[in-house]
Amino acid sequence: MTVTDLFNELEVSQPAISKQLAILKEYKIISYDKKGVENIYKLNDLHILNVINSTMGHAEHVLNNQDCDNNA
Fold first, then answer.
1. What is the pTM of this model?
2. How high is the mean pLDDT of the chain?
3. Alpha-carbon gap, residue 66 to 71, rounded angstroms
């Protein structure tokens, strides 16, 4: 996605998105390909997507006051 795509999807300011993207690039979580004047950002590893999906699923359970599997 481009910064503009992320802005439209997240409704967060473009400077805030750019700052977060810089952090994600620093930690090698994302990379980008140049397309004309725009950068197309992508995840470097699909394992990260699994972590995000798992985290979002957990957040849904918490917000809906559902029991979570607790292996502790």
1. 0.69
2. 89
3. 16
